Amino acid sequence: MANNTNTGNFDSFHKQKHKDEMVKQLITFALMIVFTLIAFVVVLTGVDKIFAIPLLLLLAVVQVAFQFYYFMHMKDAGHEMPSLMIYGGIGAAIVTILALTLIIWW
Amino acid sequence: MSIATQNKGFAAVLWDYLTTVDHKKIGKLYLYAGGLFFLLGGLEAMIIRIQLIEPENDFITAGLYNEMITMHGTTMIFLAAMPLLLGLMNAIMPLQIGARDVAFPFLNSLGFWMFLFGGIMLNVSWFTGGAPDAGWTAYSPLSTTSPGHGVDYYIMGLQLSGAGTLMGGINFLVTIVNMRAPGMTYMRMPLFTWTTFVISVLILFAFPALTVGLFLLMFDRMFGAAFFDVALGGNSIIWQHIFWIFGHPEVYILVLPAFGIFSDIFSTFSKKRLFGYTAMVFATVLIAFLGFMVWAHHMFTVGMGPVANSIFAIATMAIAVPTGIKIFNWLLTLWGGQITINSAMLWALGFIPTFTLGGMTGVMVAASVADYQYHDTYFVVAHFHYVIVGGVVFGILAGCHYWWPKIFGRILHEGMGKLTFWTFFIGFHLTFFIQHFLGLMGMPRRYWVFLEDQGLDTGNFISTIGAFFMAFGVIVFLINAIYTAIKGEKAPADPWGGRTLEWAIASPPPYYNFKQLPLVRGLDPLWIEKVEGKGKMTPAEPLGDVHMPNGSFIPFVMSLGFFIASFGFIYHATHDVAYLFLFGGMAIGLGSMLVRSLKDDHGYHITKEELEREAD
After folding, report:
1. Residue B583: inside a domain, yes or no?
2. What SS3 state is found at B9?
């Protein structure tokens, strides 16, 4: 019961956290749009393929990371098992693709 | 609810099972359906063996023979072994971790009905102009050019049942991650739960490859695409890669749960903690990991070149290391133990030499140079029957004898159990041991007939005699199951002196499993309590209301919808009426999904008072 006197502080702490979280979400969202715009601009302006393809792939990887870590909250505590599964799956897929491209069809 | 389950009419029981979301009932449904398909697959095997009993036999035609071998393989892998294991997992795994149900009971039911309709789909093909006949691997271009609709049924049937399996795998993963009882850490989980967990990961990663492959094949066959058509710029080898990227992990999806069953049985009937528990867990994980890196060893003779062949050969041989660790750990669990030999233990003991033989020929076929000699001969047939029958079927039968009391509340008859074991075990080795030599002498697999006086006559005759022994063993098991259901001895909660949580509750368990979730204090939690003189689990929570899910008929309707739509896909090119099936079925399936999404179903509570009223 004694804790009740602190509810005001407790609330303000959570409020601040939610506010920070919201700011992060908005920044991520804005960055996502910017990245998408860059991708479109790169293709529309006809940048050389040798530069454009790696850039698009890099942007895609960053966007996937944003999706996982910010929108799907993988950065927060308690997401160890999903991380393990996702990285395990990505690992298995990469090894498979490497095997197919490097040693089977070369 | 609980009292009303007594003395119901047939229609009420049927409705109960059609709508159930209880993991124990779904486990039973998997066992019934899987058992039925096992008998079908066995019948197909008998027909194959009768055809091969003598040279140039004409018991069945060549075309029908192709259908037999295709359906035997497909049925045994996808419709018998998988669901029987999923049934045991469903029935036992939640009990072993001290959970009241799986994480998504609705999804569990949907998974079962998808599997069942997929299985029915495949077998409908017998009556509609011919079953699939391109082998269970359905290699293109044979599968893309096979006339008739047989392979179409293969595609749609496996797509349906594969979706069901994927749901089951995801469900088990979430259950094990989130619903372990207080104190049940990962490193305290029984080996059967561990292997369930690991194979669920394998299902999650491997089945999408099958789904994609089947879709590509479907587009090629039904919609005129050319993924596998070399003439139009496709690549028919890609099918083999996609199939085996799924297919090799599938082998471990089948055999690892069997390893888990044997681990539990060895430890229970040796009255010892499993030797090298940690090593067993890591060996399981390692086998699963390596299982993804070896798919191309099925394709050594395709012409991938020496570099690829060598790398895949070495990776394959590496799997023998963790498997060897397991074999030695089982032997050392037996070592110095107080061993009880009953029918469950007999299967486990018979498994060790049988599976080791299969593993040894596995290393032989993994040597890519030697594989040019073995490939597509009966040597390979002998090898994979040693691992799949000697590993998986023995495991399922061991698990059935071990957990029958927990699942059905009655103990299987020991005498008949032993008779099943000995006839099946002897019959199995008669059938398949000789096939190693038939293969080495050059008998190719999948051939309809063989010629006289090429040294193959006696071997094939012996092999067929062995198959009859196995059939006899299976029939005795069936009689045993029926006898037990009628006159069998009622099982106590803990008939074997068990060590794990499933033996801490009544046989069969009440529909809410644990009145109070148990407190787990270490590996083999029930054994710890027995050793320390308490004999039963300490509750981890006060008695309170139990939240239960409501039954639902939607999974059945949803699966039925997709089942109907599948016929539409198969016949849309030739019959206009098929579009009715296609759109009608899809409407039923998607409509059920919509209903499920829009209708809130919060389940119900069993009140504390009701729980208190029920006797322990």
Report:
1. no
2. coil
| Minimal C-alpha gap between A2 and chain B (Å) | 27
Residues of A in contact with B292 (CB under 8 A): 92, 95-96
Cβ within 8 Å, pair B292-A85: no
Cis omega (within 30 of 0) on the bond before B147? no
Measured distance CA(B594)–CA(B588) in Å, rounded: 10
Q: Is residue B410 part of a domain?
A: yes
Q: Residues of A with CB below 8 A from B306's CB?
A: none
pLDDT per residue as tens digits for the range A41-76: 999 998 888 999 999 999 999 999 999 898 888 888
Look up tokens 């029920």; give the residue. B614
Torsion of CA B51, B57, B58, B64, to 10 degrees: 40
- B477: tokens are 């098991």
Check B311 against A103: CB less than 8 A apart.
Answer: yes
CA distance to partner chain A, nearest, from residue B86 (Å): 21
For residue B163, give the 3-state DSSP assignment. helix
Interface-testing mutation among A87, A94, A105, with chain B (most B C-beta atoms within 10 A): A105
Q: Cβ separation of B205 and A81 shorter than 8 Å?
A: no
pLDDT tens for B48-91 read: 999 999 999 999 999 999 999 999 999 999 999 999 999 999 99
DSSP letters, A32-90, are HHHHHHHHHHHHHTT--HHHHHHHHHHHHHHHHHHIIIIIT-TTSTT-HHHHHHHHHHH
What pLDDT is recorded for position B594? 96
- Decide if B280 contacts B274 (C-beta within 8 A): yes
| Chain A residues inside the 8 Å CB shell of B245 | 96
Full residue range of the structural domain in which residue B27 is found: 3-552+601-613
Q: Is B534 exposed, middle or buried (0-12, 13-18, 19+ CB in 10 A)?
A: exposed
Helix (H, G, I), strand (E, B) or coil at B410: strand
pLDDT 10s digits, B534-581:
889 999 999 999 999 999 999 999 999 999 999 999 999 888 999 999
- Is B595 part of any domain? no
Q: Looking at residue B63, which CATH number applies to its domain?
A: 1.20.210.10
Number of domains in chain B: 1
CB–CB of B389/B73 below 8 Å?
no
**Distance to chain B for A8, nearest Cα, Å:** 32
ipTM summary value: 0.80
Burial (CB count <10 Å: 0-12, 13-18, 19+), residue A54: exposed
B578 belongs to a structural domain: no
In contact, B330 and B391? CB cutoff 8 Å: no
A&B contacts, CB < 8 Å: 29
C-alpha to C-alpha distance for A61 and A40, rounded to whole angstroms: 16
Say yes or no for a CB contact (<8 Å) between A100 and B311.
no
For residues B398 and B98, give the distance between their C-alpha atoms in angstroms, rounded to a whole number. 23
Q: Report CB contact under 8 Å: B292, A96.
A: yes
Strand partners, B377: B444
Shortest distance between the Cα of B250 and any Cα of chain A, in A, equals: 15
pTM above 0.90, yes or no: yes
Amino acid occupying residue B420:
T
